[in-house]
Each structure stands twice: as C-alpha cells, then as structure tokens.
Amino acid sequence: MSRNAGRFVRMSYLVASVAGVLFFAMSVALLGIWPGRVLEDETRSMSPAHPLGLTVSEQRGRVIYGREGCAYCHTQQVRYLHSDMARFGAPTLAWETRFDYPQLWGTRRIGPDLAREGGTHSEDWHFSHLYSPRTLVPDSVMPPYPSMFDGSADRPRQGARDLVAYIETLGRARELAGPEGEAHARAACNCPNDEMAQMAFHGALNANPARARRQGAALKLAASGDLVRGQQLYLHNCASCHGLRGEADGPGAAALHPQPANLAGHEYTVDRLGYVLGNGVQGTAMQAWRDLSTDDLAAIAQAVRAFHVAQQEPTLPANIADLGAHVYTANCVQCHGEHGAGDGSAVGELRMPPADFRGARPSLAESLRALRNGVDGTPMAPWTGRLSEAELSAVAYYVRGFFRGGQ
Amino acid sequence: MPMQENAQRVAAPTVETRLVYAHGLAAIVTLLISVTFGILASLELLIPDLAGNHVWLSWGRLRYDHTQGIMLGWLGNAFFAFLYHAVPLLTGRPVTSARLGQWIFGLWNFAVVAPGWVLVLAGFSQPLEWAEFPVVVDVFVVLALALAIVQFLPPFFWRGLEDLYVSSWYVIGALIFTLLAYPMGNFVPEFVPGARGAAFSGLWIHDAVGLYVTPLALSIIYFVIPAATRRPIFSHFLSMLGFWLLFFLYPLNGTHHYLFSVIPMSAQIGAITASALLGVDVIIVVANLLLSLRGAGVFPRDVALRFVAMSTIFYLVVSIQGSIQAQMSVNQAIHFSDWVIGHSHLAMLGFATFAAAGGLVHVWQRIPWARYNARAIEWSYWLLFAGVILMVTDLTIAGIVEARLWQSAAPWLDSVRAARPYWIVRTGSAIPIAAGFIALLLGLTTGPRGAGLQSVEQTIGLEPVREIAPRLASAMSEVS
Fold this sequence. Notes:
CATH topology of the largest domain in chain A: Cytochrome Bc1 Complex, Chain D, domain 2
Number of helices of chain B: 19
Radius of gyration of chain A: 28 Å
Distance between the termini of chain B: 9 Å
Order of helices and strands of chain A: HHHHHHHHHHEHHHHEHH
Mean pLDDT of chain B: 91
Order of helices and strands of chain B: HHHHHHHHHHHHHHHHHHH
Strand order of the largest sheet of chain A: 1-2
Low-confidence stretches of chain A: none
CATH topology of chain B: Cytochrome C Oxidase, Chain A
Strand content of chain A: under 5%
CATH class of chain B: Mainly Alpha
Number of helices of chain A: 16
CATH architecture of chain B: Up-down Bundle
Largest interface: A-B, 85 and 91 residues
Number of strands of chain B: 0
CATH superfamily of the largest domain in chain A: Cytochrome c-like domain
Distance between the termini of chain A: 97 Å
Low-confidence stretches of chain B: 1-12, 474-480
Shape of chain A: elongated
Oligomer: heterodimer
C-alpha cells in the first residue's frame, strides 16, 4: 500500500466516521425530535383547553400499571385501522397521551387494548377481575393480583383502588371533551383531505363490544336458538357469575355488588334478554356481549330461559291485588314506572336502571326477597320497615303481573 | 504494506484470559437465569395462577427480567469475553488495563444485571421495552459503557485506522453508538410524554438491536470465520459497504414499531423505506459471509464456526422477515401478535445467541488452561438449533392465527383460546433450549483443561495465535 493510498483510506474513514455520527444524529432528529415537534403542535392545537390530568391516586395506579408490566399484554394505542377501530373505538390522538410519562403504548396485545377502557366495566368487575381473573373470565390468561387485596375481591387495598382508578381514566379525557372537543380537534387538524387523519373523527369513540350502555336498541333475537350451543356458550361466558344452573352462585358472584341476576328465579322474555345481552346493565358488572353473533346470543337466551321452571304460584284474593296496586303506585312507580318497565320519572338520576318487570318476571320468592332485603349495591332499599307484611306480599305479587311473556 | 511488517506489528498480543473467562462464565450463568425467567413467564401464560400470592414472581416482572437479562447479562458478558480476546488480536496491543477490566466486570454484573433483576422483582422498573431496568441502574450501564470505550478503543487508535479489519469497525461503532443511543431510549421517555416519547422509544427499540447487538454479533462472525476457515474474508469491500450501510440504515428503522399511529406519516414511511433497504444491506453482508464460508459447509466441523455459520443464516432470515413485516400491508395484520415474539426470538436467540455462543466457544478453545468438553458443546449446538427452529416456527404460525382472528368479528378471547396450543409448544421448545444452554455451561466448565486446543487440532488443526491476526488484517491488501 502506497503512502498516498494510506492517507486516502485514512481520510475516507475519517469522513465516514463523522458521517456515521451525523447519521445517528439525523435519525434522532428525523424520527425523534421532528415528529416530536409535530406532535407537540398537534397536541397544543387539538387538545381541549383544560384537559383533566391524573389525580394522585390515579398517578399511583399508573405506576402500578407500569411496574406490573400491564402494558406488555394490553396496548394503549388504537391504531388508524378499521380492525382496531371496530374493536376499541377512535384512533388515539396525540393530545390524549400528553400526561403519559413515560408512554405506555405497548407492542404486544395478548389481552385487549385498554386505551378506551374507562367506563367500560364496573368497579366491582375490575376488583374481582384483578383479584382473580378466571372467576369472571374462565378462559383468561391474566395473572391474578391477590396481594393488592385483603383476602377477598371486595376488600381492595390501596393499590387495587389506585390501579382501578387509573384504568378508569383511560380514554376519559376524550370522552369528557365531548362532541365540542371532537369538533375542536377536527377543526384544528384542518385535514379534510387526509383520509387517514380523518379516521380519528369517524365512528364510535368507544366501540368496545363489552361496554354497557343505558340507551341502546334491543337486539332482535330469534325466539328459539340452538340449546346445546347455547349451553356451551353459557358455560364459557356466563356461568362464572350466574352459576352453572343460573342461580347466581358462580365463583365470580361473591364479590359483585349488585349480585348477578338469579336467572333461574326469573322468567324472561326473549326481547328482554336481547336487550340485556346487547347493552349490558350499566352500573353493574353485567357487560354487553355485542362481540357474539345474534345466533349465538339467541342460543344463550334459549339456555337462560331453560333455567326457569314454571311453578304453580298461589293466587291472591282480589282485595290483596288491589292493595298491591295501591302500594306500587305509592312507592315504586317513580323508579319502576307505571307499567313496570323500569322507566319511572326518577330513572335518570339512578346509577343503574331499575328492574324491568315487563321483560323479567321474578318468582314470588325472589320478588319478596328483594322487597325484604333490598338489592345490595343498587338504589333498591329494604321495605320491611315501611310496609306491612300484607303490603309486602301484595306488591310482590302485583309486580309479577306486569310480565308480557308468552313469547 | 508488506505482509511481514504487518505480521510483526501484531505478533505479540496479550490476551487477558482471566477476564475472558470471568465474562464467559458470567454470560452463561446470567443466560441460565434469564432463560429461567422466560420459561416461568411462558408457563404462567398456560397456568396463570402459578405465581399465587408471590407478586415478585408475577408475569410482568419476569417478562422484564427475561429480556433485560438476555440483552445485558448474557449478550453483554459474552461480547465482553469476545472483546478481551479479539481486541488484542485485531490491534496487536493489549486492552487499556486489566484492573479497569475488573471494574467493568464488577459494574456490569453487580451494579447493573444483579441489582437490575432484584429491583424489577421488587417492583422498581421502567415500563419501556428493552429499557425495563430502573433509571438508577441505567446510570451504571452508561458508566460501564463509557469505561468499555476507554478499555477497548485506544488500541485501535494506537494502530491507526487505515488497516483496520471490519470486526474492528463493528466494535468501534457498537461501543460508540450504544453509548449515544442508550440514554436516549432509557431517559428521554421519562421526560417526553406519550406519543412524543413513543417516537424515541421506537428509535431505541431498534437501536438496541441494531447498534448494540447486531454490530457486536457481526464482529464475532467476521472474526471467527477467517480465524477458523484460515482464509481471508471473501471481500473486504463488501464488508465495509455492509458496515456503513448498517450504521446509516439501522437507526432510521425505529418508527416501524409504531405504524398506523399518530406519529407523522412521513416519519413512518421513512422508517418503512429504511427497513426495506436494510434487507438489501443484510443480503450484501450475508452474501459476503456465506462466500467466505464456502467449502466449510452449512455445518462446519469446528463447532464455534458452526455456531457462527448458523447465526449468519438466522441473520439473513430474521432481517428479510423484518423488512417484510415493516411493510404496512403485513404490519397491520401481524403487529401485536406472537409473530413478533417469534421474530424477536429469531433475532436474539437465533442470530445473536448463536454468534455469541460461537464467539465464546472460539475464545474458550484458545484459553490453554480452561476446561473444555467437546461432546457437551456438540449437544449444545444441536439442542439449541432444534429449539430455535421449533419455537420460531410455532410462534410465527400462532401470530398468523391471532392476526386472522383479530381481523374477523370473533370475540377477543377467541384469539387467546386459539393461542393456547401454540403456547404449549412454545413452552415445550424451552426444553431443548434450556438443555442446550446447560450443555454449553458443561462444555465450558467440565472436561480436561486445555481440551479446547485439542478440539481445534482435531477439526481444523492448530496454528499459532500470531498467524490469525495478520489474516484478519491482511484484507486491506486486497483493496490497496
């Protein structure tokens, strides 16, 4: 190698080395700093004026979420893809992540994405699920976190409370921003021709098929479904709470407030089951099941209706029936409604919808038990102090008359 | 430059064999611990209540310790062991200081890996991929990396850069760029929130593989092939082309971990393009390596060379796979699925581990006083080979199954149910893999002292160490 060639090689390596470091700097600038600035601008312009940050408890919950590796099975990022949007809702915008130090987007989804989990399940569901996931979801592979509880799912320690408080914040900022927030973000985006950016503003904000909703259309289910398939589906999806025979004694039932419905103690119309399966019961652990096909739901409805055994209930004298109507009008109508449809004038103020007697007829025993004990975890209080034995029996009997069964 | 002169300059390298040995042993011990974390985590997906009330054994914490242990404990120590052997041979000069070496060893294992593991299990960690050890541990990683630069780079600069062999370039590049990239991935997202932080995390996820693992693994491959085949590398020009393309393209890949996100589309498309080009670069590198291997076969007799040859093939497959899965049409389906877990195991357990194991066996054979059990290492190779193929195939299919279910209207839980048989096979694949690593430990700690040299003699014949160095360096004479 000649002296000149040596110098040439030395120089070229020097140049290449400097270029290499510059290239690294360029990668940081192009893929880190520059996108960061774009995202910062986007956050500033698209964010609502005063987005809700995290409380101290929620921040502690976030630390637990990070520490336990939750983000390694649950992403927190809905992508601009129809398959993601159909399952979880609107794509994640930059401003929604502005308080995430550090980010928890995740790169693996074993469980579902949680970016829009807030408001999807009830608090008691979360506690039971954290304490022992398989008591609610038999086929789940999530690890249990019993050490966050004091011996049972309804005795959460601070850690569990913080964690659930944090989970409830996921997607909250965008929901609180409401339609005005969406309109503001859309105007700030100013991207009418950017097909992908527009996806963020189309479709449901929260598309989780499990999310309970108060005002939803009833699914029209076929009056008869495949009973065997229904029983299988019931076993995999429902028995964990409602019990093998529909007696509300599944392993997941213990810590839920209110308790799961006693399916064997009620007679249901197909329409009522279609409504509950399609919309869940908001405020309770009963989620919606929109991810199952209507055929499957009709099959489940069939299996649920099969739990009910028709019994000869005593008939009451007419004067007692009149007494029932009188008591009902005086005490129950505000919530349960004039025709027992659970649509009384006070319903809007209740955390969860009152029983709908037109779609579900309790057995006399069930009816009396609810009146005597109230329903724990719901606004339904015990009536023993306020109504006489005769009045209790009368109204327990009376509400059964609202049922519009037959189908 | 005449060969003789070159040979004289590199004639008497001093290899700190005790440091090679210490890092080598630490590598295998941390490897076995990391694999245990991995096996437990995979078991917990099959038996989710396994950990019971022991929160320190819960899935998330094991998962953190698994990957950090592999990256820093196993690969880090194996790379150090290789560097203590290779740097003196490549430069003809000893490393800066044996005493500094003891400090680096102590820092790396007792201020980084061990406390990192314990802190994660105790609940102190950072929920960022390839950065799970808590920030306090990261400080010591950066310190140790800086000391490693002091330890290993001066010998290169003493010699002058003009006749550096390609392995040297990879060593220099890896040490410098890792020191630059590590703080970016481990500290920045703590101060930059959400989507903005994710952009940096994406960069680091790829830099960890591209600027730390890959260059050091390639430096081993480029070193062992000519040392064991007794021929110079096929083309020094292709080596250098591959090297510079790698360092230009790898850092530009990061955003492909967050496609279809809110990160600006032009950054995503840039990363996708760089990912495709990276496949081209790897074809260049691997073509050069395979041409250098010609005549030795896919399964050479020398087991160190055999590890390295298979590592080369894994490198090709995993990189082409990476280029493909970064494309939007593929990524939208398989992202988030077990396909990616298969991909990362093909990279870390296939490519990187086979290179590291090959390098470790190669340097071990050349420690005259080290024990060496050739049969155990033979077993190790074949067990690992079978285990990797089984695991990666299984996870790849699992990913496709999951992706199909996610695209359909099926309930989410159906994808979890469908994954179970594949997860059983994945846990099963841990049996040959763990057995292979135990065999590797036995191979390097049992058997007669000095049996490594005998093994070299039987497979490729002995040669004085000083013969190796000029062969590595002489590549330059082909271009000048």
